[in-house]
Amino acid sequence: MTTIGSVTRQIAALEISSKQNKPAAAASGSSLRAAHSKQTSQEKVTKLLTKFSAPNPFSSSKPAQGSSLRHPTNATNQHAASSSASSSKSNLATKSPAPVPLDIGTYDGGLETENEKRGEKVYGEAAEELALDSSVSGKNPTREWTLHDFEMGRPLGKGKFGRVYMVRTKSEPKYILALKTLYKSEIVQSKVEKQIRREIEIQQNLRHPNVLRLYGYFHDEKRIFLMLEFAGKGELYKQLSKRGSFSESRSSRYIYQMADALIYLHGKHVIHRDIKPENLLLGINGELKIGDFGWSVHAPGNRRMTLCGTLDYLPPEMVEGKAHNERVDYWALGVLTYEFLVGAPPFEDRSSVNNTYRRIAKVDLRWPRDRELSSEVKDLISRLLQHDPQSRIPLTEVLRHPWIVKYNKHRESA
Ligand code: AMP
What we know:
414 residues; globular; three-stranded antiparallel β-sheet; Phosphorylase Kinase, domain 1; binds adenosine monophosphate; single chain; alpha+beta; Transferase(Phosphotransferase), domain 1; 2 domains; 17 helices
């Protein structure tokens, strides 16, 4: 039987389009160029996406909060690349009535206004470092993209280096993406050219339902544009702030997805190093998406000594300036579990940063008095928050832990 997972893989393998199929002459404008650029693959993608379409937001009585799936504008197939490609384990496909058109919202002209005022041209070595174009990138070239290939939609947010917009490709099938802009001169000012490049290179090669896809990227004189999977339900951090904390069942489902994604990342020798709620997004079905690779390292076999990441999530070995490996992410998973349930990280000390360091180094783990936690989750957190990285419970065992199994039975059968 074809599973959504296998379709995800097929879509991933197809890429959005490939350079090999680039037309020789692209005389009639960018959208025409786009439409012709990969006929065969696009037909296949259309077929797959039509069969395994985006979930129907109107199937439940309450529309998804913060979702852009409000008013269908026409009957054409408009898909969130993300939702169709990542709704891996739920059986949406065969039961959804018809493909649901997605409204990308109203564009506020922000990219142009911003571009008039913001950023400068970058020259020399830095310019070369930031001349990023997935159509010419080594292993997985995609087709050549420009801003004209997209219909602009609503603003999704503002990042440190530029805005993020919901967009739709002009060519069929109409993919919905998040287009993130990064101003080159600001990247250079912050001296993070290498980090950004690394983030892009890492993310581009990752394919997992709980890891935000980077479909492609391109640049102009002042900006880099990242074509990201659209995370329909936005930031997880916002939901956590709004609710204060999550239930055990909801937390357990997220931690399962995190552990699964981390097993995948570690298998590719990618250590994330900056796991925290602010770096997690939610897909259209509420599935978790690891979305920020700014601090991740591609470290086949070597142990790193740089201090980075967020203080509350730092493991003892990093606080103590020792070498570290992928088990820093095991620790962070323990901190994340605690924060989901309690609403604050376990070693937080608002009075002083040094106290936080001290509490981490001593593994001064205290359970909240005002919130009853199950003995199972306390067991899991304690096993992840071990001072000695080697003593931390392996991620494969996390997936089999009673607290995870209890709330993720459907995944096991899937
Ligand atoms: P960032 O530059 O990644 O911090 O993004 C700024 C804001 O844009 C985030 O806080 C999100 O609200 C939104 N955003 C970024 N990426 C996406 C995405 N792939 N899907 C939906 N919203 C996003």
